[in-house]
Write a structure and sequence with these properties.
4 copies of one chain form a homotetramer. The N terminus of chain A is likely disordered. In chain A, 42% of the residues lie in helices and 16% in strands. Chain A is α/β, with parallel strands linked by helices. Chain A contains 15 helices and 14 strands. Chain A is globular and about 60 Å long. In chain A, the strands form 3 sheets. In chain A, strands 2-8-7-6-5-3-4 form a 7-stranded mixed beta sheet, sandwiched between helices. In chain A, strands 9, 10, 11, 13 and 14 form a 5-stranded antiparallel beta sheet that branches. The first copy, chain A, has a two-stranded parallel sheet with strand order 1-12. Chain A folds into 2 domains: 100 residues, Alpha-Beta Complex (Aspartate Aminotransferase, domain 1), CATH 3.90.1150.10; 239 residues, Aspartate Aminotransferase, domain 2 (3-Layer(aba) Sandwich), CATH 3.40.640. In chain A, β5, α8 and β6 form a beta-alpha-beta unit. Chains A and B meet through α2, α3, β2, α4 and α11 of A and α2, α3, β2, α4 and α11 of B.
Chain lengths: 368, 368, 368, 368
Amino acid sequence: MNDARLRRDVPPEPLFFGEGEGTMLFFENDYGEGAHPKILEKLWETNREKLPGYGADRYTASAREKIRAAVGAPEADVFFLAGGTQINRTVIAAMLAPWEGVVAADTGHISVHEAGAVERTGHKVLTLPGRGGKLDAGGLEDFVRRFAADENREHMVFPGMVYLSQPTEYGTTYTAGELTALAGICRAAGMRLYLDGARLGYALAAEPSLTLADYARLCDAFSIGGTKVGCLCGEAAVFPSGAPPHFLNTVKREGALAAKGRLAGIQFDVLFTDGLYGEIGRDAVRQADRVRAALDRLGYRQLVRTNANQIFPVLTREEYERLSRRVSLAFWERLDGGDVAVRAATSWATEEADVDALIALLEEEKRR
Amino acid sequence: MNDARLRRDVPPEPLFFGEGEGTMLFFENDYGEGAHPKILEKLWETNREKLPGYGADRYTASAREKIRAAVGAPEADVFFLAGGTQINRTVIAAMLAPWEGVVAADTGHISVHEAGAVERTGHKVLTLPGRGGKLDAGGLEDFVRRFAADENREHMVFPGMVYLSQPTEYGTTYTAGELTALAGICRAAGMRLYLDGARLGYALAAEPSLTLADYARLCDAFSIGGTKVGCLCGEAAVFPSGAPPHFLNTVKREGALAAKGRLAGIQFDVLFTDGLYGEIGRDAVRQADRVRAALDRLGYRQLVRTNANQIFPVLTREEYERLSRRVSLAFWERLDGGDVAVRAATSWATEEADVDALIALLEEEKRR
Amino acid sequence: MNDARLRRDVPPEPLFFGEGEGTMLFFENDYGEGAHPKILEKLWETNREKLPGYGADRYTASAREKIRAAVGAPEADVFFLAGGTQINRTVIAAMLAPWEGVVAADTGHISVHEAGAVERTGHKVLTLPGRGGKLDAGGLEDFVRRFAADENREHMVFPGMVYLSQPTEYGTTYTAGELTALAGICRAAGMRLYLDGARLGYALAAEPSLTLADYARLCDAFSIGGTKVGCLCGEAAVFPSGAPPHFLNTVKREGALAAKGRLAGIQFDVLFTDGLYGEIGRDAVRQADRVRAALDRLGYRQLVRTNANQIFPVLTREEYERLSRRVSLAFWERLDGGDVAVRAATSWATEEADVDALIALLEEEKRR
Amino acid sequence: MNDARLRRDVPPEPLFFGEGEGTMLFFENDYGEGAHPKILEKLWETNREKLPGYGADRYTASAREKIRAAVGAPEADVFFLAGGTQINRTVIAAMLAPWEGVVAADTGHISVHEAGAVERTGHKVLTLPGRGGKLDAGGLEDFVRRFAADENREHMVFPGMVYLSQPTEYGTTYTAGELTALAGICRAAGMRLYLDGARLGYALAAEPSLTLADYARLCDAFSIGGTKVGCLCGEAAVFPSGAPPHFLNTVKREGALAAKGRLAGIQFDVLFTDGLYGEIGRDAVRQADRVRAALDRLGYRQLVRTNANQIFPVLTREEYERLSRRVSLAFWERLDGGDVAVRAATSWATEEADVDALIALLEEEKRR
């Protein structure tokens, strides 16, 4: 692409958001504030403790143990990395053989919005059409059967893993039945199952039929997101029945090993103390439920029916223009006819009063 | 390697340190504590501000401007990444053409201790013998001349960049004269010069002949380390005359783009306010100078003569055993004859009293 | 995939073909015989000449000059590589910036049947739905426009190149109008255009509106296939306005530089002497036309209407079973209802009598 | 490198050789002629046979069986690839885990003259000082012991394989004792042993203590070079106890799978019929021995004492200038004092009379 405007990428300017800074009502995303106060407190409290680096400190050990207990897998390997794309590409590349690729919904984060990070590791993302962001068991089974029957398969990329995001990029969640079906197909076909839990805390509340222990039972690896669930940064990679060999070396080689491993260790230790991780998820989903109920009551359409912390209202152009001056929402897509789908997200930082104010604005629009 | 002991890498256990935790005197490294208090304070203060993600917030913009001013390069591109290996491999790969490799001292961090991260991006590290961790201008010039004269060069890896660390892994620093000579060779040969400043704050104090503006003038890219100079995490990549095209996309693809860009932005904004970065470096080097003076006075040998924040005393086996029970030091290497070289590091967190106590222990040893 | 049968890949057994060896009538593919006799003769004739290696010999120079003349681009850079996947991945990777991927039809060879070779170089294949194997200008334009308008594009893979195969994997060809439209979109958007001409000789005959000079005028790079057009092995990469810098080094690094460069040089020198390349294409397409006419006359359906050297008849299950005992055809796919699409290919080696015999068999089927 | 002269790489010009073409006496290399006549004959003879592609033909099967018999490993997997760099990078990458690199002598072909092909696959070449091109068992053992004892090893590249070339780039050969010692170290340390046999035919004659069966017994993989031992192109990869899984897919992905697999299959079938491979090696080494004897008799120095088909005479500047006008020799290096080391190579194509003529020239020089 040679459009001069496209070349402009330095320095980065606001990428997603019209106006994110300031005092405007904020529903643009779930990473707009710093950290849950309990996390900052613990960082203060431990700040002068002299701890070994590279994840060998006592807080990281404690966080690991608490996660093992929470997921019901005492033998699980747990690693802490800094970000979502980083954990996805590192775990995926480490679990694939050179001849394998990873199957994902065409709307999956790794398929679209990670700048080709998985391909950069040498592996193909094999996309299947998603429905509301979700991979369909029937479609996957059919794909696998056709691959196995293809006489040309040695000239093709082998499906070695299935990637799911929970909740998906469209705010939907897999049910226990759906995840069990997908996991069954994976096991039957010798594919690993990896679940991207960048927002897993919100899925735990939205889809109570699936507990952390269920994810550990059904997946070969999954991430527990911190960045969007109360941390400054940090994602936990959980391998219920063991990580790939020398995974620490892989993390180092991928540039994802923090000298001050304590930063992630302390944060996850707090998240998994006294049920904070679950509490954050429940609070945010409760607020999102209030928004959804208001949208329905007021007659707003939604692009996708969601149940976690993201909501996709459809607005008229006028509604969109007026609302965006008073509340920060993420533009999602322009629909045929001129309507605009936006994304509103709640988070650990969303207050009851924020939602009251948002609902008041939505009501005001409908009273015009 | 199939030694069972070597296979054990999961979960990570203390890698470098005998005993790092607890209340023992600590000189093991410069990343053993959390963050400089001013940084933590600012994180608290800004915690509830709603800011755009991915580095588009006002603190990141401010930090970028302050760094541009500090390095005297108003057009510089500045990016913030999380860690040292990450910034090294991302910057190096982005600045090399596919047919190029990076020249480094054989003791360089990228040559030895980054688990092959640069090679993972497809580029060779071309090593030359270092002296006290430093690359020698004469050796580099000779290497370049031989390469240019080699009729087989199209079958070889082209030297496209020179990598230096300042201070080096051996605690030494390049002087203004040395760096100027190396930069001249690079320019004459069309090679880029990249300087790994993971501990640059300490070099600024140790080698006052080189200012931040000098690094900006002589290097095509350099990093300003935060993790080892008072941050929880974070390194700044500075490109004095512009970053490679679409570097933000590269950072994303490499898994190094933080959703909460504010974390690095706020930290670096503090570091570059009221001269804090320089102050941290001066304090730590002053304490290191005190240790060096005591070692000389007491007749301890040093493996390498250093001037920054790392010191490499040589101890007898008995001294090593006794001292390691009371002060945490990094084992460096066992010398012929049984003596042990250790590394002691000061940091932003080293107190005057810590050094007093260390000197007292060193004196006690010599009184035996 | 863990099906034991799938694991069986060593040693390779016939991959595509039921029974390829022997005296059965052969229309399975266009690489079933050795080399055009004129090529073998020249290999004999020059066998004892002592020539420099790595493409520096006089035959390679001559072949390069003849190709430059044939494509009407006296400044073109021309390189000879051994195979199709090799030339595709080497040229594509060399012409893409790190943040770019290559756009291809979802049925493109690089999308499906090169085992992830392009991804192995770190680049994504961005697929668009093909029609009869062809990429559609409207679809491409729409894709490019949407990408340029996407505010998230720095988190996405930039389309840096368009890949076309001519003829396509489905035996169809782009017309002059179609190729001109696609090239125009590429130029407007700053994307390079690469045309995979593994079977280009057959396209020259099938689509006479496009000459070699047209390909050179419209494409940034294209390949002239030898393996399937009379050579033992070998493909020419043509860069009408110059190859990427140090492309020879890239070829070496990719393992695609032959010590005995003479092998490709001599073969292409023969192919481009006295119009042999064009003649081979015309003969094969003439035979394919005879088959197509017979199919139409006899009432056989075709999966795709083709005009080059590949034909895709649709057979009933019974026809397929009987015919496959007497003529070697490539199984293509099983259609709903039980019919079978097969591929028949003509080549430089197809004799008039072969086609007579095939037509006789087709007639016999319809007489039943 | 920005020297304009260095940028000139397109089109390739003679890289290694002053004057290679013509009727001058030729000892420049062992790939200056076409193919052994028996090979060309067989290519003619089989040219019109219709055979399946991708190595599924009967000649490839036969060649594979003959090689299995010759190496005494009936279960060996055997694959045919086109060139030396290609087979090295493909086999090495396929046998290394992501955290592993390959140990080689600093003069090894993969260390210096393959344009970074191994690094391009993501793996580091860990170099040790060679002696006369050979890796030393003592040095390797020491390296492995130090690595295993290094507490930082999870931050380092693990040595996963040892690469040897036989004969080496300096024309020397490992003895049975040396190879056994190196293989023992590899097995003890869990490293694979790969032997690059680009010129293996000549080693078989030069080092009769090592038979093909010995290589199969001692190595995890080795190549049997064809390009420099009578073929137009082609190298066999032999995995005595089995290839890595899906190696065919790897070969395809690396762009190294030939559609006309028959080309390599037929050539190797001929090479391994009636002992031709051994015969070629013996003839060439016998001629090289004659040259070595003459050099000694006439008082010429040699840069390295060799025993295979490469010889490295040291000439005065005047001798070099005069001789290079009458015999094509490869310039090797300029020594201190102005003398020139050259390389003379014999091959399957070297005639008794060629050597007579060379010896006459050498005598003439000494008579001056």
